[in-house]
Amino acid sequence: MANPLLEVKDLDVSYGDIHVLWDVSLSVEEGTIVALVGANGAGKTTLLKTVSGLMHARKGEITLSGEPIQHLRAQEIVDRGVIHVPEGRRLFASLTVMENLRLGAYLPRTRPLFAESLERVFSLFPVLKDRKEQKAGTLSGGEQQMLAIGRAVMAHPRLVMLDEPSLGLSPILVKTIFQLISTLNEQKTTILLVEQNVNQALKIAHQAYVLKNGKIVMCGRGCDLLVNEEVCKAYIGERARKPNG
Amino acid sequence: MDSFQAVLIAQTIVNGILLGTMYGMAAIGLSLIFGTMRIVFIAQGSVLVFFAYLCFWLFKLAGIDPYLSIIIIIPGAMVLGAVLYYGLFKEAAALQDRISSLLIAVGLMFILENFMTVVWTPNPRSVVTSYGFASFTVLGIHLTLNRLLGLGIAILATIGVFLFLKKTVIGTAVRATSEDVEASTLMGINPNRVNAVAFAIGMALAAISGINVASTYSFDPVYGFDVAIKALFALTLGGIGTIYGALAGGIIIGLVEMLGAYFVGGGWTQAILFAFFLVALTFRPQGFFGRTGQKA
Fold first, then answer.
1. Which of A67, A113, A192, B48 could staple A161 via S-S, CB 3.0–4.6 A?
2. What is the dihedral of CA B84, B87, B89, B92, to 10 degrees?
3. Which of A45, A49, A55, A75 to substitute to test the interface with B, most B CBs within 10 Å?
4. Is B288 a domain residue?
């Protein structure tokens, strides 16, 4: 079988003396949605930050299509098409929607595709087209999340890593955002999704990993983990197990 | 108040505005560098004076007109800015701690002051052109050509910086980095490139001010520190993060300095300026025009 798009092998990461990730391995196949779930402080964000080059591993390997990328700087990793949408969205609040999108396509690689990418963003998120000239800080929470994802689409990504895209959104908006993530995936974008909303994440994920205290404790198909006794007890709660729940 | 006194006050106000634009331009440079790198580039004033000396030399030795020398000095200043960044600040900028960067700036200031004292002596210098002090009288207010040119150039430069930040991709990247360095890195923006651009523009503004200082006032090697402190006041008063705020802050400082000297006496200028600054900040710690901390 061909190499997976992203492969993380035996990754150890620490903040100073505090060891955060222990021997973490996972792989993301091209064209899939992979969910990484787990409690607060399990190390999910740290894993994404290490893949995107904001942090560096003590040990282990990260490969993109078989090529090691763990020694690269963040902007070089972006240039290879791995786009990290950080927790809390981190938009440029005083810049307009359009300026935020333009910066999504900052790198020379993506500039020739600008018009095409922009059209894709506006068809995914029509509301952003109406808000083009508005400052990003004035958007609602849901619109801001759409802009954050749209900014990633502008980078012509091979892999989009979403950190808690449903954080702070109303239940209806959460549903919308998850639908949009699925649509994005159907358009052949590979997605690594970090979520606390385990139920929703597992529903759309092809493959999922459970991270606990910095270690991968379980992995499997999203739908299998969704009915897994242990996962349900720890992260979902009883209600979700019932049909139609 | 008789009309003679009214004219004198109006004259003082005009002079204050003209002096203030110089502080304002230095403040815009400080603002850009502070925005991307989070340090106060305290050597800004000394660099400005350095360019004033270059202008003086070009005029004295090569007979090049100070306003013509803009064509040579500005590109040189931009290159110097990038070289300064990559040579001195790049490694320190990568650290969390800003103290090293700040100390490098302080060191650079002392080196420049010393260098200028040795090369050009501590005696005040000025560039006197045949036409610079040609004067007009408008409504009884006395204006000289060099001051008017200085004001015009300062306004053009400010508009230029504004358009650069607003209209170009790299300018937008500078604004984005000022807001959130980590998020801008995730867009693929190289922090070193953005910092170098901020330095290049900061130095170009210092060069423009330097040329204005050279052709309007007299200057000496340690004058730069005074300018840097006043630019810092201007920046704080104007509110960090706005180009026009920094310029307006500079004009306020220039006015307070000139009016203070007129009404209370030249010896008191520094004290009045500091007192004004402290009182202003007590009531508006965020400055007069600054953006309030909105976050996405």
1. A192
2. -170
3. A75
4. no
